[in-house]
Amino acid sequence: MDILSSRIILRPRDYATTLAFYRDSLGLAVAREYPGGTVFFAGQSLLEVAGHGGSADDPAGFAGAIWLQVRDIGAVAVELALRGVAIDRAPVTEPWGLIEMWVTDPDGVPIVLVEVPEEHPLRRDNR
Asked: What is the pLDDT of residues 25-44, one digit of tens each?
């Protein structure tokens, strides 16, 4: 199987609130808009907020997380706090060496913001 692209699709209970969170609070750039939805750039992936398909009767929660790599987690923490985004967990260096900070979108979807330190194996060229 060849995978040519990927994206995360969210079908929120309140489209306008979730759209504003990803666009205004997190500051993700819009890749494209269509009637009833918006697609954002999220690093090498895309994040789509669909204005259709979600309802108040849907099960609560999201069995996963959105993982977004950033250059400077400290700067992002300040930026999000200034935008009024609640930080669920402040930046901390995990045992696996990544610096992670957690926030939650309006529907309770966990978002992991990650900085990869220079000395981390993910930054090594293994060729």
From this structure: 999 999 999 888 899 999 88
**The CATH number of domain 7-123, selected from 3.30.70.100, 3.10.180.10, 3.60.21.10, 3.40.50.720:** 3.10.180.10
DSSP string, 45-112: EEEEEESSS--TTSPSS-SS-EEEE-S-HHHHHHHHHHTT---SEEEEE-TTS-EEEEEE-TT--EEE
Among 97, 95, 101, 96, CA closest to 114: 101
Phi, psi for 90 (deg, rounded to 5): -65, 160
